[in-house]
Amino acid sequence: MAPNPKKVLRDILEDLRDADFQKFRVELLERKDGVKTSQVEGKGFLDVADVMVSVYTEKKVLLVADEILREIRCVDAAAELAKAAKTAGFPYQGAASGEAGGAPTEAAAVKREGEHFVDRHREELIQRATNIAPILDGLLQKKVILQETYDQVLRLQTTQSQMREIFICLRAGDECKDIFLSILQEKERFLIKDLI
Question: Which of 34, 40, 55, 58 would bridge 5 by S-S if both were Cys, CB 3.0 to 4.6 A apart?
Answer without folding.
Answer: 58
